[in-house]
Design goal:
alpha/beta, Rossmann fold, about 240 residues, two-stranded antiparallel sheet, 9 strands, disordered N terminus, single chain
Length: about 240
């Protein structure tokens, strides 16, 4: 299907396939409607491209974590080991395609001859794609990329990370809490030193003092310390039958 967009000047200025829409600087900045049309169709194009790309992979596990861990560090090597275990178990490994934990997981998957997938983000000066990604697709919008990272994986594994990793963790847990996705999907937090204080804060403050969550919400995830423990929790994850958003 070809998606087209047209301007409101009657001349069909944006009557183009979504993938051929003009760049932002080419859109008249004083034409608010034209600018919105351009963005809507670019978003639609990215959504369709992302879903079509992921449709080729039936058994995926998405791995999140900091981009700052270097090869040889503890969590880099655990993520690499998990990628290898998943590949040997028949899973495709999906990451954001960047450095750190993402690179480690892609590296392990590649070493295990698995599908090593990277969902990249287009940046003004560079493409942050690690060398171990075998199959990739790039996105302009962070929120579309984030949706694809969370879409229809059989399990989610979170290594220690910064604000982005925490944001991704809490979004998945929120979708499960609100029944937008099944609460039977394994969510594994790797790194007891990192995640246990957050769990304690949930339990003591959010659940205890503020009563802002239910007790069963704290059962939506499991905290482990090794790649082997994580693999045991995700290896028998059933196919996804729910589709959210």
């Amino acid at each position: 299907m070809t998606n087209t967009a047209s301007g409101n000047d009657g001349k069909g200025k944006f009557n183009l396939p979504a993938s051929k829409l003009p760049q932002a600087e080419e859109v008249p900045q004083d034409d608010f409607r034209a600018s919105l049309h351009w963005r809507v169709f670019r978003i639609l194009s990215e959504l369709i491209s992302g879903w079509q790309f992921l449709a080729d992979f039936k058994m995926t596990v998405t791995i999140f974590g900091s981009a700052r861990f270097e090869e040889g560090s503890r969590w880099y090597e655990e993520a690499r080991k998990l990628g290898l275990l998943l590949a040997k178990g028949g899973f495709s490994v999906v990451t954001g395609g960047g450095p750190g934990i993402m690179q480690a997981a892609n590296q392990g998957s590649s070493e295990g001859s698995g599908d090593s997938i990277g969902l990249n983000i287009e940046l003004p000066l560079e493409q942050r794609i690690n060398p171990y990604v075998k199959r990739s697709i790039a996105f302009h919008y962070f929120f579309v990329r984030k949706l694809m990272l969370s879409y229809a994986a059989r399990a989610y594994v979170f290594f220690p990370g910064g604000l982005g990793t925490l944001d991704e963790t809490f979004e998945i847990l929120t979708l499960m809490q609100t029944k937008k996705i099944s609460n039977r999907i394994p969510v594994v937090l790797v790194g007891k030193d990192f995640w246990t204080p957050i769990h304690s804060w949930f339990h003591n403050e959010i659940l205890g003092e503020y009563k802002a969550v239910d007790k069963e919400d704290l059962d939506l995830y499991k905290i482990v310390d090794t790649a082997e423990e994580a693999f045991q929790l995700v290896k028998d994850a059933p196919p996804r039958e729910d589709f959210f958003y």
